[in-house]
Specification:
- It is a single chain.
- The protein is an alpha/beta fold.
- 34% of the residues lie in helices and 27% in strands.
- Strands 9-8-10-11-7-12-15 form a 7-stranded mixed β-sheet, sandwiched between helices.
- It has 2 domains: 105 residues, Beta-Lactamase (2-Layer Sandwich); 231 residues, Rossmann fold (3-Layer(aba) Sandwich), CATH 3.40.50.300.
- The protein has 13 helices and 15 strands.
- About 2% of the residues have low confidence.
Length: 358
């Protein structure tokens, strides 16, 4: 099979498996190709060095990267046309000390029908989120590791909010990960000067009911999100933090004071996807095991705090201690322990996801 045909086959298989990432990694004399399935790296193909090098060069060419440059890291993107659909891909290369390149391909715009049906361990936290997202205005923040389903959760909640009622929803993302026809989706383009700040300002002038912000990355984006919440819009955004309490600290680090957070913040959620234990596999449920359906081998664990629960925090600079008292027994580590004790996850998974110094 030539390089172009194999590239198409590789992406077709990855899409059919609902793979989030493809990793093409150099070994001493060959390349291994892995799919990230349910959060785990699983080896799929063996390529000799020449085949692996040609494949990486082909993807670099498609994504407008410098094919001849192997020393410095590069990134790119393209839309790949498969037989029945087009998929958006993001590419990232980096070389090891022997100048052997590795390539990671992230597959975007997975099927909305499947990806927008989240599975959760506890209904109480999900019901909290469904109540919070009905608010007319305010700021609802989500945090969690990469590939923890934050975008899926935000989309699903807002789609539920729209049931039986026409609303204008604008998304500001980099890049758009899930194609949703009922939303007005916008995408950051730094090359063209279209930044998060620019899109947020334009979105506010469009007078939407809800704005979804892919990620709060810097002080300017944080200020614009707060401004939007103050002007009567519902803002739903993600931000990187260690846990729910870390979201407050992170917003302060980005220059947002406690008084403004107290006025705008209606809730904070931290989430992650935990691989389910399988009695047939004797470990996390493997890709080809039928005990848990494909796409249902991980469930979301949420820690959710409402404005009332955060009241002590937002009025006191002692963030950590106050939040601990406010959140009680529904903190992430406590819920993680309940999941483990009830046999849904392995001991290894429990220790891996336990948040130290929380």
């Amino acid at each position: 099979m030539d390089t172009e045909a194999f590239a198409g086959h590789l992406l077709t298989m990855a899409d059919s498996y609902r793979t989030s990432d493809i990793h093409i990694l150099p070994e001493q004399k060959h390349y291994d190709v892995y799919f990230r399935l349910n959060g785990q790296m699983e080896k799929q193909y063996y390529l000799d060095r020449e085949e692996g090098t040609r494949l990486i060069s082909y993807f670099k060419f498609l994504s407008n990267m410098d094919v001849g440059e192997r020393r410095r890291p590069q990134s790119g993107s393209t839309t790949f046309q498969l037989s029945e659909k087009a998929i958006d891909c993001r590419f990232s290369t980096i070389s090891n000390y022997q100048s052997q390149e590795s390539l990671v391909i992230r597959l975007l715009k997975q099927k909305e029908e499947d990806s927008l049906v989240p599975g959760t361990f506890f209904s109480q936290e999900w019901e909290k989120l469904e109540r919070l997202v009905q608010a007319k205005s305010g700021l609802l923040l989500f945090s969690g590791p990469v590939d923890s389903g934050k975008t899926t959760t935000m989309y699903h909640l807002i789609k539920n909010r729209m049931q039986g009622e026409k609303q204008q929803v604008i998304t500001v993302e980099d890049p758009v990960e899930i194609e949703e026809r009922s939303f007005l989706q916008t995408q950051v383009n730094e090359t063209a000067g279209v930044t998060y700040e620019h899109l947020l300002k334009s979105s506010l002038r469009h007078h939407p009911d809800v704005i979804i912000v892919g990620e709060i990355r810097d002080e300017e984006t944080a200020r614009m999100v707060i401004r939007g919440a103050l002007t009567g819009h519902l803002l739903v955004a993600s931000i990187h933090a260690k846990n729910a309490r870390g979201v407050i600290s992170r917003m302060q680090e980005l220059g947002v004071g406690l008084p403004l957070l107290k006025q705008t913040l209606i809730g904070v959620a931290f989430q992650t996807l935990l691989p389910l234990y399988c009695p047939l596999c004797g470990m996390n449920c493997q890709t080809y095991c039928s005990h848990h359906a494909r796409g249902k081998k991980r469930l979301a664990l949420f820690e959710v705090m409402t404005a009332e629960e955060m009241g002590a925090v937002l009025g006191d600079s002692a963030v950590g201690e106050s939040l601990s008292n406010a959140s009680g027994s529904r903190e992430f580590n406590h819920l993680l322990e309940k999941v483990y004790v009830n046999g849904y996850i392995t001991e290894k998974t429990y220790h891996r996801y336990f948040i130290s110094n929380a």
